[in-house]
């Protein structure tokens, strides 16, 4: 059975969204609310740049077009990044593969923004990781101390048992 995008339902063909068995909801699309928020944010920025303060409404069919085209872009980008990953002999797609893929599929204008976002992400996670490491180190110290305390208690108990037997 053909879907609107020309692919068969249930298949991951190009231009079509796979659908869960017995479901009308595509399983590989972004949440509608996320796409709507991205579109509205971008339209608001464009309106501000043009000096227009009026909010623009987004019709359902336009939202669907944005959603499907966004998914197609992400799938295309990931496919190229995965190919670059395999060519480099690695098994995990990393940020460099994605950035290189953007250049290769003719979207180099996104690279600078993504590099900045990646750097911010790394800095944010570095702070979290150092907090997690400090917490883990403290827990490990407590575990070591508890283990020593338990060992001391066992030794004392053994000494008392030996002393009472004599």
Automatic annotation (TrEMBL):
It comes from Musa balbisiana. InterPro entries: CBFA_NFYB_domain (IPR003958), DNA_Pol-Epsilon_Subunit (IPR051377), Histone-fold (IPR009072). It holds the Pfam family CBFD_NFYB_HMF. One of its GO terms (biological process) is DNA damage response. Keywords: Nucleus. GO terms for molecular function: chromatin DNA binding; protein heterodimerization activity. One of its GO terms (cellular component) is epsilon DNA polymerase complex. Residues 55-102 form the Transcription factor CBF/NF-Y/archaeal histone domain. This is Transcription factor CBF/NF-Y/archaeal histone domain-containing protein. The keyword Nucleus applies. It comes from the Eukaryota. The keyword Zinc-finger does not apply. Residues 152-166 have a biased composition (Acidic residues). Residues 1-26, 122-166 are annotated as: Disordered. Residues 122-141 have a biased composition (Basic and acidic residues). The lineage of its organism: Eukaryota, Viridiplantae, Streptophyta, Embryophyta, Tracheophyta. It is found in: Nucleus. Signal peptide: none annotated.
